[in-house]
Design a protein that fits this description.
44% strand, six-stranded antiparallel β-barrel, 94 residues, 6 strands, 1 helix, mainly beta
Length: 94
Amino acid sequence: MSWKSEIKVGSQFEFSIHGEKGIRQKAVVTRFLSNPEEGLGPEADFYIADWMEARTLSEPPKALVFHQGADGNIYLNEKRVDIVLDESPGTDQK
């Protein structure tokens, strides 16, 4: 998934740890960051492509920081995650 072309700020999505069945959480994207914006040098580009900040839709909301590795996979807290966009009516998909 090339998330910057598919996911926009305000997009809602579900995510789960890769390989875990039935445990999904909902979240909304709050912003995207590059490696330099995260304070990392150019060598980080070999490992991490982009960063995405989000917050859970649960109460209280929890801040999350995902990163897309150079391998194309998406990670949260060093664990690979699967992301599914919520494309239901009423979801802001600008």
